[in-house]
Backbone:
């Protein structure tokens, strides 16, 4: 049987190395900033088309935008984009709640704004609501990623206990 | 709480880098690990073979279109070993001023 003696400093260095490697992975698998810009900017033309009251154009636009966003999101979520998928234990239930909460926040604020503007007789409720949604995504998306990164690094097994 | 267990297989610096990367992921491409760990193709292949022999990783080879794609994931056994190793390291650090004898 081999015997190994490891000093405190060596163990601390090894833990720091593990933490550094895992932080690198977490940073790499986060959704990049451009994703939020693409999704946000795709929503605005949909809002414009909706305000045109052309049903066919609105229906086609909604399907096209939904398909592009879905394909892009699947590409991100499955890890195909980065070549790795984050482990559910790394993300944790708190991380999942951040994501779900953010999606519901954006959807909720957009719908409330659109219907509110429509009720007030505004001529461009769809356009204005989707501009707000785009702003929320572009500003909030990177903030969400920052929160997730912090939460995941804290969940790292090598994090101080 | 995970039982502390110093692991000689994981302790080696290149394998520590690989296993640390894999522990944060569900799976990772060969290229992702190679770039993340800063290893050459041959060095990574060699280390992955050792980890596979120990039962710590599962290697899957598939084709995406015409391109071969190798993905690697940490097995349950590998994940337990990693967690045990980390716990052992934390225990050593917690008992500062002393050293832990493992074997």
Residues:
């Amino acid at each position: 049987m081999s015997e190994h003696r490891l000093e405190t400093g060596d163990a601390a260095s090894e833990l720091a190395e593990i933490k550094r490697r895992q932080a690198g992975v977490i940073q790499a698998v986060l959704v990049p900033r451009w994703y939020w810009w693409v999704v946000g900017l795709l929503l605005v033309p949909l809002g414009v088309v909706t305000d045109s009251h052309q049903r066919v154009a609105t229906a086609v636009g909604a399907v096209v935008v939904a398909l592009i966003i879905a394909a892009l999101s699947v590409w991100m979520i499955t890890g195909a984009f980065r070549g790795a998928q984050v482990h559910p234990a790394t993300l944790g239930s708190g991380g999942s709640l951040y994501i779900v909460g953010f999606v519901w926040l954006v959807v909720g604020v957009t719908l409330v704004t659109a219907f509110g503007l429509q009720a007030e007789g505004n001529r461009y409720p769809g356009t204005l609501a989707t501009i707000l949604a785009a702003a929320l995504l572009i500003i909030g998306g990177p903030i969400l990623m920052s929160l997730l990164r912090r939460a995941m690094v804290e969940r790292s097994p090598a994090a101080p206990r | 709480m995970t039982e502390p267990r110093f692991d000689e297989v994981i302790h080696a610096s290149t394998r520590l880098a690989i296993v640390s990367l894999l522990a944060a992921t569900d799976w990772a491409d060969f290229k992702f690990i190679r770039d993340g760990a800063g290893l050459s193709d041959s060095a990574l292949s060699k280390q992955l073979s050792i980890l596979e022999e120990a039962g710590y990783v599962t290697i899957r080879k598939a084709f995406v279109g015409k391109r071969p794609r190798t993905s690697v994931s940490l097995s349950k056994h590998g994940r337990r070993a990693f967690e045990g190793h980390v716990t052992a390291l934390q225990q050593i650090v917690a008992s500062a001023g002393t050293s832990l004898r493992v074997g």
The helical segments of chain A are 8-29, 33-51, 55-77, 88-119, 125-155. The mean pLDDT of chain A is 88. The longest helix of chain A spans residues 88-119.
